[in-house]
Design a protein that fits this description.
Distance between the termini: 88 Å
Radius of gyration: 27 Å
Length: 121
């Protein structure tokens, strides 16, 4: 075997490996587009600012009323927070303070509503 034969053999092997990886990747993409692959938690969207503020995933009792209250509060916070950067210019200082106060009031209302639906006494 000459040096050139060895080089050709290695190149051909590398080429075949790359082709194999290409077809495997193409197959996985095709299956994913068909909806056959569970996206799993790593491909989920990050939580919105509203979901973070209300703690959307924290519901140790699994109460559906608590989940609904938190979803609605998170949506309200997201709407209010979108006003911060929604215009061509950033919100004025006064508007920033109003947004902060509104978010705080929504959070307080959400916590009190959860307290009402989970009250045991």
């Amino acid at each position: 075997m000459q040096k050139s034969d060895c080089f050709y053999s290695k190149n051909k092997q590398t080429h075949l490996e790359i082709q194999k990886l290409f077809f495997i990747t193409k197959f996985i993409i095709m299956i994913d587009e068909a909806g056959a692959i569970d996206p799993g938690p790593e491909t989920q969207r990050p939580p919105t600012i509203g979901e973070q503020i209300v703690g959307i995933d924290f519901n140790p009792g699994g109460d559906p009323s608590v989940s609904k209250i938190k979803q609605l509060a998170a949506q309200m916070v997201d709407i209010v927070e979108s006003e911060r950067e929604s215009r061509a210019f950033p919100a004025s200082t006064l508007k920033q303070k109003l947004i902060d106060a509104a978010v705080f009031a929504i959070l307080q209302a959400q916590m009190m509503a959860v307290k009402v639906v989970t009250f045991k006494y």
